Amino acid sequence: MTGEQTIGDYRSQFERWIGLPRHRRELGAELGAHLTEADAAGRLTGALQRLGPPREAARSMVSGLPLRPAHWGLRACGYVIDLLVSAAPTLLYSLWAHNIKGAVSSRFGCLDSWDCFRSDPWLVATVAFAAAWFVAGLTLMEWRLGRTPGKSILKLRVLSEDGTSISLGQAVVRRLPLVFSGGLQIIDWLMAVPGPNHQRGFDRIAKTLVVHERPLPRAVREPESAATAHAG
Question: What is the pTM of this model?
Fold first, then answer.
């Protein structure tokens, strides 16, 4: 693998871990310039060793970035939006059918709502889709994109506490109580009320934050490792 390919692969992985996407290209370009100069001087291997894994390099680049944790009330609004988006197919089908129980009962001759539910394949399909989307779809969106439709509308994003993007494991852990409703979810949300970061209980376990998106200050502190690679 050539030096250019090595730099490209490292930069791609580095940008994956930059939590605020509007700055991925900017910070990636800075890192690429340092590594290109190191490669031209024959010091690329040493520079990469000093930088460490891509996530460590990303953590160094965003370590001075002030984050604005989102208020728990705003987060709750995003959660409600996600619920509505997930339930939209079922709600639309219900509106189209006007009266699901009556319409299906007259069509299939079922006696109660559960029999009617099982007898209507479209209703079963929309409910199954809504459940799969809320459990798996939103988790994958937070992992790959850092936000769900509700967070996107409200300009919020999920980050690790260190400012980097979250891993799949973090995405799964932080959404566990949101999948299983009841007392656990209530307790989890109540823990977001006190404290300056408004972290739910499982946010604290997963070491994640929900923050407002905001521009990255131009005076970003260059990581010592990158500066060393540039100067050395």
Answer: 0.78
